[in-house]
Amino acid sequence: MNLGIIQGRLSEPVNGHIQEFPNDWRKEFDSLEECGLTHIEWLITKGTAKTNPAFDEDVSLVGLPISSLCADTLVDSRITNRNYLKEHLTPICESAIRNKIDTITIPLLEDSSVEEAPARHRFKDLIIEFANAYPNLKFSFECELSIEGLRDILKVSDNFYVTYDTGNITSYGIQHEKYVDAFHQRINNVHLKDRTYDAKTVYPDTGDTNFKSIFDKLASAGYSGPYTMQTARGETGHEINTAIEHKEILKGLYNAK
Q: What is the pTM of this model?
């Protein structure tokens, strides 16, 4: 099991935020081996939209175990605005090319939801320009979106993929089996998160997300890509212990498939 973690979960929360770029990002990579994890999904948030080290040409990320650049800064209602998307996504694409990272994760949820057809059509018209401009990058969408809505986006380009967030799909109300059947050929990352049906993120295997069934279905579909823990935060100051605990729970469920 190729199991990693979202950036920031190995550090104390920054200014009380559940998900924010950590103050000491290098320390998190040093902690990976201790935790028995393989990769980090790098975060670019609104708090670091201009100052993230990924944008510093004097900082090289080449060779670090980074699975993708996650563009959390795009969780904004202006995601369908050409100028906003160009301003925020272009430097992420340029950083990915410079640092030899082949995947950019784009969240289409909360403020950046494109569930409504007009917003989705505007987004498609804009995002295809990036797919054409950066043909060597994979754009992977983490969505709270119907199967039909996501299909509508994926058909635009062969560069488009799916980040399958198990918690999001649980709380959105889509059957996981149907989701994997629909997108297994385009899934290139799986966010492991447990949620209840009323959208509360909880410790792994305590909510309504049936990981055993999910792992069985992904295995039968031939999925061999990365899994990335985006699990509930534990006690502040005990992030390493929380990560190890969650890893053991999830690996146990995975190995029981």
A: 0.95
Domain 3-255: give its CATH code: 3.20.20.150
pLDDT tens per residue, range 213-228 = 999 999 999 999 999 9
How far does Cα 58 stand from its chain's mean position?
Answer: 26
Instruction: List the chain domain ranges.
Output: 3-255
